[in-house]
Amino acid sequence: MTPCCRQLAALCALSLRELYRRKDVWVVFTLGLLILAPLAAIKPYGIGGGSRHLFEIAQLLIWISAAVIAISVAGRQFPPEFEHRTIYPLLAKPVSRTTLLAGKFLGAWVASVSATGCFYLAYGLFAGAKMGIWFPAVFCQAFALHVGFLTLVTALSLLGSFCFTPTANLTVCGVVVGGMFAIGQRLPEMTAGQPAVIRALAKLIYVAAPHVEFFDLRRRVVHEWGPVGWQVVAAVLLYAVVYSGACLLLAGWIFRRRKC
Amino acid sequence: MDAAISIDQVTKRFGAVQAVSDVSLTVRSGEIMGFLGTNGAGKTTTIKMLLGFFAPDAGRVRIFGADPVNAAARSRIGFMPETAYYYRYLNLRELLRFYGGLCGLSAASIRARTEQLIPQVGLADAGDRLLAHYSKGMLQRAGIAQALLHDPDLLILDEPLTGLDPLARIQFRDLILALRDQGKTIFFSSHELSEAELICDRVAILKQGRLVWLGSCGDIAGDGGQNLERIFLNLLAPGTPEAPP
Amino acid sequence: MRATLQISAAALTLVGALALGQMLPRVFGDRLPQTAGTSLLDQVLGEARMMISDGMILKADEYYHGGMRVTDCTRAEAHAASSLDLPGSASAHVHEDEDEARPESPPRDLWNWVNTRIHVAEHRHMDGDQAKELIPWYWAAVRLEPRNVQAYLLCASVINHDLGNPSEAIRILEEGIRNNPAVAELEIDAGCIQLNRLRNTRAAQACFESAYAKWAQDRDAHGHADGDLKMRILFYLCHLARQRDDTPALDRYFAEAQALGIRSGSFTAIQKMAEH
Ligand SMILES: Nc1ncnc2c1ncn2[C@@H]1O[C@H](COP(=O)(O)OP(=O)(O)O)[C@@H](O)[C@H]1O
Ligand SMILES: [Mg+2]
Predict the structure, then answer these.
(1) Which end of chain C is less congested by CB atoms within 10 angstroms, N or C?
(2) Which of C32, C42, C51, C38 is nearest to C175 (CA)?
(3) What are phi and psi of C113, to 5 degrees?
(4) Which residue of A has its CA nearest to C20?
(5) In this predicted model, what pLDDT tens digit does every residue of B108-134 receive, in sequence order?
(6) CB–CB contact B90 A89 (8 Å)
(7) CATH (residue range B1-76+152-245)
(8) Which of residues 69-108 of C touch A (CB under 8 A)?
């Protein structure tokens, strides 16, 4: 292993260790189980066999927890380092700030992806046991796109952590992600009848804001629609990579200029 | 002998505060230099520039001839920060493994170094305890261990003595002297005049960001029986004119 | 040590969650019976209760259409059609399954191009046994708001029609009637099922008569009443009277129907029955 790889690996391991020692993931996982297990056991009107509502709720829980984990883990990479002054021994080591940022990003990304992977695995086993179809193509696409979503959100939150206080960052990222989920797709039509200024603003947001709704295949998975074309999946993942790259470049620029 | 640290007419200002003004200083390879001054004199600011945390407004600093802003130049520095505060959710072994990775060391050499260093800093039976449960002095010892991890040629220690119990101070002193005997250069800031006098080859005194005194401890003994405390008082007591270095 | 503790804690939680799931229905009986009244939910949610409950009915409707809201489909499908410049594209919403392989429309913008491919933009209908997927939402809707008559009606209809379980549908309607004693519609539907599916004319007669009585009570209480509703009740009562060859009753019902002054399909049917 080259020294640079060792540095990245060390930073990654640190983030993972932090996430799993903080037990947030376990709490989320347990909470999900506590919600779903009783729901799964209820047979409404003695009529069993309905399971899409469980899948839908499970998917919703996965999306919410994955987003919360990704935003909070990425947002926690740098601020505590500054607050607790652990950044000083870190910066004094022979590691460049670019590597440091890359390692922190990678760490947060691996942490969120691994947590989300656990959720998907549990979901896949559960759905497979219920429906007899194990990990269909659309499910794998959903996971691939979810990873894209985590990449984007991690980069966004990491960038935000250099611009805002931790709580403000959490709020801003939450609003951006939630808002784009809700209206990202319909923004141009929604503002069609508005004054030109608002239309222009909406257009700007529409073009520049992260389109997290691209990554959402829940309806296809739950209601057994067919898979998306793989070239579309590739295009969306490319979007995630480019957007995250831009966020990271900006974050790196801020971080390199910051006086510690 | 080449210079481990060379500080050349360095100035640093934070808004209205002139933290460091026109300081020039050379630390020779293999010597122990004490960097003294009252609170707010600019010691930590100087050290941060030595580590490349930020560049000086004017002048330049070099570590073994290289600019510390470059990561590679820092591979020869071991640094222990002023306030020892490390990741609470790690134990000491994990902390050292993490820093070892950052220094680019292999897993095997990290393990060997760790097992050697932990007893050396007197934490033999605390290596598996979470740092959240360490006392201030124990954290300070952990700080020394992480600074020595990659066997650096130059040690930069910011207030290494604060928080140490008397036994730890003696151990620290022995450690520093042993390191010097191995050919390491040590640059440390301190308030502890008597301690500094005991171990330093040379001493630099900073007052309001200016270097006001630079001399060897041998000079002090020969200087009419003055001790460091006296020099310090003379230089830094309010109302005394600044002596040229 | 730590790891074993964590794993055993996780395992315990899993077992606990599953046990809780198994226990709940037993504690509350296998139907978790619902009763109307001022419960804690009422106090917490107030008026929002009915809105959320109605939202669950919408959810069931979405499920019926493959997770799509039909209004959304209309828009998306109309859009796809209009970009093809088909004549009459405004009414492009066809209420049947569509082919996935629709000719590609040129993208309006890149984001839209992605979205139309990622998200489902058409709808389909559930058939037969699949309708069981709707039941949990209706069930939840009436658990949340037992006064949601619509939910009872839809649920019973799906169970009767799509799942072919008329007796369970009757039980659900009975639960609805218990919780909404003043509502005639529930009894009309129960009567229809008794009549058409269970072939139990006696029970059907009782249902329609009860509905008739409730309709009269409602008129007395409010001063006005729903004529169409009465026409429906009269239609079934006529039908049953004709089966019994009870001509006086038939004539009486026909007279009442004429008095309503509504000339609907039901009225024409009643008229035909009375004339025969
Ligand atoms: N980041 C900063 N922003 C503003 N002022 C600073 C900053 N760092 C240090 N200072 C100021 O510079 C002066 C020197 O500080 P410092 O170098 O920490 O002193 P010390 O000798 O006690 O280590 C102090 O007056 C301090 O308030
Ligand atoms: Mg200081």
Answers:
(1) N
(2) C32
(3) -55, -45
(4) A38
(5) 999 999 999 999 888 999 989 999 999
(6) no
(7) 3.40.50.300
(8) 100
Q: Residue C206 and residue A216: Cα distance in Å, rounded?
A: 52
What would the two tokens of residue A115 be? Answer: 């947590």
- What is the rounded distance in angstroms from the CA atom of residue C207 to the CA atom of residue C191? 5
Question: Hey, is the C-beta of A206 within 8 angstroms of any chain C C-beta?
Answer: yes
Higher pLDDT, C30 or C253: C253
For the ranges A30-44, C90-104, C137-151, C219-233, the maximum mean pLDDT occurs at C137-151
d(CA C263, CA C260): 9
Residue C215 touches partner A, C-beta closer than 8 Å: no
DSSP B66: B
Considering the domain boundaries, does residue C162 fall inside one? no
Residue C56 domain boundaries: 2-129
Query: pLDDT at position B11, please?
Result: 93
Same domain, C15 and C95: yes
| Cα separation, C118 vs A219, whole angstroms | 10
Chains touching A (3+ CB pairs < 8 Å): B, C
Chains C and B physically touch (3 or more Cβ atom pairs below 8 Å): no
pTM above 0.90, yes or no: no
C-alpha to C-alpha distances, C184 to C16, C171, C172, C220, C226, nearest whole angstrom? 44, 16, 15, 14, 11
Inside any domain, residue C142: no
Cα of B230 vs centre of ligand 2, distance in Å, is 22
Is-contact B63 B73, C-beta < 8 A?
Answer: yes
- Helix ranges restricted to H, chain C: 2-27, 40-45, 48-64, 70-83, 110-118, 135-144, 149-161, 166-179, 184-192, 201-222, 227-244, 247-260, 265-275
N-terminal to C-terminal alpha carbon distance within chain B: 22
Beta pairing class for B3-14 and B32-37? unpaired
Can you name the residues that pair with A61 across neighbouring β-strands? none
Residue A44 tokens read as 């409404």
Q: Please list the residue range(s) of chain B that carry CATH number 3.40.50.300.
A: 1-76+152-245
Last residue of a domain, one of C61, C94, C129: C129
Q: ipTM of the assembly?
A: 0.86
